[in-house]
Structures are given as structure tokens and as C-alpha cells.
Amino acid sequence: MSTSQERIIPTDLRNEMSRSYLEYAMSVIVGRALPDARDGLKPVHRRILYAMHELGLTADRPFRKCARVVGEVLGKYHPHGDTAVYDALVRMAQDFSMRDPLIDGHGNFGSVDNDPPAAMRYTECRLRALTTEAMLRDIESETVDFIDNFDGSQQEPIVLPSRVPQLLLNGSSGIAVGMATNIPPHNLGELVDGLIALIQDPDITNEGLMKYIPGPDFPTGGQILGMSGIKEAYLTGRGSITMRGVAAIETIEHRGRPDREAIIVTELPFQTNKAALIEKIAELVNDKRIEGISDIRDESDRDGMRIVIELKRDAYPRVVLNNLYKLTPLQANFGANMLALVNSEPQLLTLKQFLSVFLDFRIEAITRRTQYELRKAEERDHLLVGLLIALQHLDAIIALIRHAADTQSAKSELMTAYQLSEQQADAILQMQLRRLTALEAEKIRHEHEELQTLIADLRDILANRSRILEIIVREAGEIKQKFATPRRTFIEATEGELAEQDLIANEKALILITEQGYIKRMPVSTFEAQSRGTRGKAANRMKEDDGIDHFLTCCDHDSLLFFSDRGVVYCVKAYQIPMGSRTARGIPIVQMLPIPIEERITSIVPVSEFSDDEYLVMLTKGGYIKKTQLSAFSNIRANGLIAISLEEGDQLRWVRRATAEDSIIIGSRKGMAIHFRTNEEQLRPIGRTARGVRAMKLQSGDELVGMDILPMSIVAKLAITENEEIDDDSEELPVLNGDGPWVLAITTNGYGKRVPVSQFRLQNRAGKGLIATKFKSRKGQDQLAALGVVNEEDELMLVTTRGIIIRQAVKAISIQSRGATGVVVQRLDEEDAIAAVALVPPSNGEEEELEAAE
């Protein structure tokens, strides 16, 4: 006999605690707290439903005491406290907890006021028809595995053969060790539609499934604000869904005193305690945190919920209601955590994964049911074949049986004489004399033929996955038709769905960047239009060594594409740039964009919509040009995106939007311009990282100064000639006095003019171009500052190197020929010069007025 010392096993305390706690945690996770993704049930719920099924408590049978069911579950399957079992049973019968209750309760099963249910000895229950049809049907057909119960005396199913995704239908909540689940309930009809969509298109995305399953459908109704929380939960498994009760503002009539307005609450968010809500409102009123409420009363009855919140005469109903949403559980968040057991392992599932796991389980269940039915049919047909053999040799078999010494010898002789199996011989010996009539023999033959057809059909089902999927669709469709109800929860895109830009007016703005890298946004309305030749207003408070570098107008909702000299593009929304006054310097652009110190922004393009039909035309300092689809820049990373590949020493300078049929006009510092088409022949589209082709042949010491796009309609309308020889030295070129458009040429000394577009014939790319303007100063002090295309109704914003801005109407600048020098557009101080020119297009209202005037 061993001593006590020998029985002691030394062990490390840390290892023992770790192992024991892990075993306990897994026991809680798998055996109690988390539902199975296949039937959506925890073990306690599964055992309750199976015990009621074994007791025969179907929807067409009388109610039985809940205490009887609880005792059955405790005695056979669930060795825990009776309170845990009864609480689970009660919840499955509450129509305010389950979207489609699984148990039909009779008696007091609690209320939305958090009233407790009556004791189990007073209440009664039975299964609902949905539970029998959708959860327990075919359970005897070997569709699922059974295991021993806690003492090995009974068998219980490890999962129920559910025909619908019950986990999503009624949802689930539970707290395990180190993890928790909280799955919202959904609409049965929508779930079936989503399942069928997945079967028909296995590659469907979560977004595609959301067309059929738009969101949770809570049993208490209410509203869901916005799709963002739902989408996050369906795509990632976690999300916060904003729920709101349904409230209306009505006028309450009072006899003998003035009528009052009142807020009537008819639906509450899921899992909201009505009594606690009323108590919370009363507490806020007493603490004067909510003003304007004179009385609160609960008028709910068996016909529905009705909470009446009477208001004072001077109260604003909408303000009071908004405060109720903000300060009380009348608006709450449902923290979705879509965690469930898949192959006994907890997994965070997306919407498609939920349906895919269920679909795989349903395919397995139907396969096993079909195999069971096939085996039973083959066994029965095997016996019928033996009976048919007996009927064919009836007299001989009767004689054989009569002369046999006993049953065993008769069976052996039958098996030997007629090549029968033991089962067939037993069936013949057990056959009653009445089966020997002609009518009974015909029934046997008919049953045999039917079984042959059935066996062939069952084998075809097992051989074809498509047949199994058809059965799933048919059976799910039947349940939908029989049990589906309309959606109770309304999903609306309101405050919770408002995008940031929805809170900002889409007004015209001026974006300004200085040479030292300061950026700011100003309303265009800050600058009133001025007459030609005035000095303008200061637009920026700059240091003496700073100047204006970039300058454009856009709308606040536009996406701004910032192109750097290194060929990298960055993107921010216009409204994200801080608004500044005329005299403010702005903020450093490095606070908005992750650009290196040595990098400089050279072009900014506002984009309201990234279309596949538009292109970005890019022009480098070295004269390379390329065309790339605008949609290629719709998703720009935070640290930028390569827009063009550059040669050593080259820089990206200009970027404009264009279509495939437009044309481009490019100007050089010495007053030359080239005009060519953007079609496939002259400029075919290429990828983001390509370098491009030559745009223009430059004279010695010349450089490009800008480019602009001419729409196809303008070129066609003006019938611009192509590749005709025109004397560029002529001072008397014909002038077209019409409605435009014109090519605007502004020089650094403040001179400008409008030249009819028709004077710039279309040429082939890479030519030297035509003379666009001549200069007042012949000593090279004056140069072309900007070249662009303008219309009659446009306005210009001119900015000088010292930050002086003038806003001027285009029509104030005279129309002249290519060979003219222009007129004074802006008077400049000494050592000041025009730095940039931006176009201000008319607003929508101005365009409508112009169209009406025409």
C-alpha cells in the first residue's frame, strides 16, 4: 500500500492554474455562452426544444406546465439550476425579445417593463409551428449527430437540423470568458431571400447580400439611423447600430382648457425597459435638464404601446424630442459583435460567412436525410422483391413451408431454393394470408415500382449538388411563404448617416498657396468685381521674401488633387482647408499634405466626380505631355500616388481635365502657342506611371508657361482650320467679334487681351506653334504670365507676386488679334508682376439667368 507521500504528485502552480482556467474557459465558451453558427442555439435552448419535441408538445397539442418541461430538461439533458432553464424558456416565448418566438407561452411571461414572469408552476408552454417546421423536422432522419447526455442514459442532438438561419433570425447574446457575442435579430423573409441569392451566386459580396438583407429587424420595431453601422457589422463582424424609438407630435384635446401638443411614443428601441425610460424622463424633468414637459403617462394596453409626453404651451416639440433622443434610452446603440461557434471554435463572422456556414450545414443535412431515405427505400424494396418472388412461386413455397420441421429450417430452405436473403425469407414467413389475394399482390407490385422510381430520384439527388440546392431553395421558400411577416424596423439615412460635407454649404472658394508653402481658403464673395486697370486688394499677409505660388477657384465639396513637381499627387477635400481672412497668412501646407521639404506643389485640379469619360492631361517643364483616365486617381493613399514618371531634372508643372475629343492650347514664356487635339491620333491615353510624349518645340531660352483645354463643341462650332499656312508675322489678322470663347493672354507687366480661338489653327503635336502675343517691352522684361480659354460670362482673379488680388470680368478686356500687345489689365507697383491667373466660372444660378436671357 502506497504512503501519502507517494500519492503526492509535484506540479508547477502556474502550469496547473493555466491548464485549469483554460479548460474552464473552453467549457463556458462551447458549452454555455456562445451559440452554434449552424442552428443558432446555445446548448440550453437546444435541449429545451428537443425535450419538448420528445414530449410531443407541438403547436396542435394542448399546453403543458413549464415545470414539466423544466424537469424533463434537468433530468435528462441539462444538469444545472432550474432557474437557468426556465429563464431561457421564458425568453424563447417573449415576442419582445425574439423576432420570431420559438415557444408558444400561456400565462405571464414578463413584459417590456421588465416585469418578472410567473413561476414555472403557473405558466404553460408548447412549441410554435415555426419551430417544428423549421428547427426540428427531419431530426429522426439521421440528419444530425447525437451524443450521450451527462450520465450516458440518453442521447441528445449536438445541433438541430434548422431549415432557416436561426442565429440571424432571432439573434443571440452571451458573455463567455474573454469574449462576448451580441447578434441582432433579422426578418425571416429577407434572410431566405439572401440565402437564395447566395445559392444562385456563390461569388456575391456582403454588399450584394445587403440588397436582400438591408439590416436588423427588431421585434419591438423602432428605427435604425443610417447604414454605416450595419455595413460595418456585416463586413467586419463588429459595428455600432444606432436605434431610435418611433415618436410623433400630436395635439391633445382637453375639455375645458386649451389644447396641448404632446410627443406620442409608440415603439421603443430593442431591449429598452419602458418603465425605466419613463422614470429617466421624469428624473431629467425634475433636474431641469429637459425643459418643456408638463406631464408623462403610460397609456399602453394590449393593443400596443403608447407613452404620452405632454408639453408646456411655450415648448418647442422638436427641440424637446431631440433632447429625449440625446439624453434618454429613446435612442440607443446596439453594439453588434457577430461571434459564433464554427466547428466548436469561436469565430467573428461577416454576413456572407453566416449564410455560407448555414448553407454548408444545410447541404450536409439534406445529403444525410437523402442517404437515410435511400437506405430505407432500398431496404423496403429488398423485402418487396422477396415477396414478389414468393407470389410467383406461391404453391411451391407454401408446400415447402408446410413440410418444414420448424421456422429455422423453413427459412434456410427458402434462402437456398430461391436465393433469398435472410430478411426476405423472414418477410415471406411473416406474410399474412390476406396478402395472397390478387388485390394485395397488385399493391405490392405497385409499391415496388414506386420505390424504384424513388430510389432513382434519391440517387440522382446525391449525385447532383444542384438538386440539393434546389431542395434548400424550395424548403426555405415554403417556410418564408408560411411564416414570414413584414419588416417592423424602419431603416432611414438621417443624422447618423450624414457625411461631413452634408453639414457644409457648397459655396465657391478661392484656394491660395504661397511660395513658402502656406495655404488657405477664402470665399470668392470676399472679392467684388472691379474695373479694368485698378490695383486690387491684398489677399494675403506675407513675409517680404514670400509670394503667391498657386491660386484657383473651386467649390467647397470638391476633391482637390495636388500635383507636385516630382510627379506625385495628393488629395484633400476643399472644405478641409482652413478658412482664412484676406490678411491671414494661412497654415503650412505640410500640415495638410505629407510632402517632403524639397517637394513643391505645381498644379491643383478640383474634381467633383471621378468619371471614366474624363482624363487628366499633364504637362512637364521639359515639354512632355500625357493623358490618363481621371478615374485612376479616385483612390489616392494618404501618402500620395505616382501620377507621372519624370526624367532627371524634369518637373510636372500643369494638369488639366479633358475629354477624348477636346483640344489643348499650350503657351510659352516668349509668347508662342500651339493648338492640337486630345484624340487617339495626337495623344493616346496611357497609364499613371508613364512619362508621356513631346508637346511643343521650344526656341532657345524659352519655356512653357501654361496650357488650357478647349471643348470639342467649341472647335467644331468655330470650324477652326487644321494645319493651314498663316503668316504669323501679320499684324492685321482677322478678328472675330462674337460670344467667344477666346484665348486670354496676360503678361507679367499687367497687359492682357482676348484673342478669338479661331486664330489658333489646329496643328500636329510637337510643332513650334504660332505667335500668341507681342510685348510692349522689346528688352525681354515682359513675358507671357498666363494663357487660357475664357468665355463672355467668366470672371478672372489675378494675383501678383506681392499678394495683391484683383477680380475682374472677362468682358472688360478688349478683343485683339494674335499680333497685338493688349491693354492694361492691372496696374502694378514697381518690382511687382503678375504671378498667376485663375478663372471664376459662373454659379448655377448665374448660368440659368444667362440661359434665360438667351
TrEMBL record:
GO biological process, one term: DNA topological change
GO CC annotation: chromosome; cytoplasm; DNA topoisomerase type II (double strand cut, ATP-hydrolyzing) complex
Principal location listed in the UniProt entry: cytoplasm
Claim: Transmembrane helix is one of the keywords in the record: no
EC annotation from Swiss-Prot or TrEMBL: 5.6.2.2
PROSITE patterns tied to this protein: TOPO_IIA (PS52040)
Claim: Nucleotide-binding is one of the keywords in the record: yes
SMART domains: TOP4c
Entry GO MF terms: ATP binding; DNA binding; DNA negative supercoiling activity
PANTHER family in alphabetical order: DNA GYRASE SUBUNIT A, CHLOROPLASTIC_MITOCHONDRIAL, DNA GYRASE/TOPOISOMERASE SUBUNIT A
Full protein name: DNA gyrase subunit A
Organism of derivation: Desertifilum tharense IPPAS B-1220
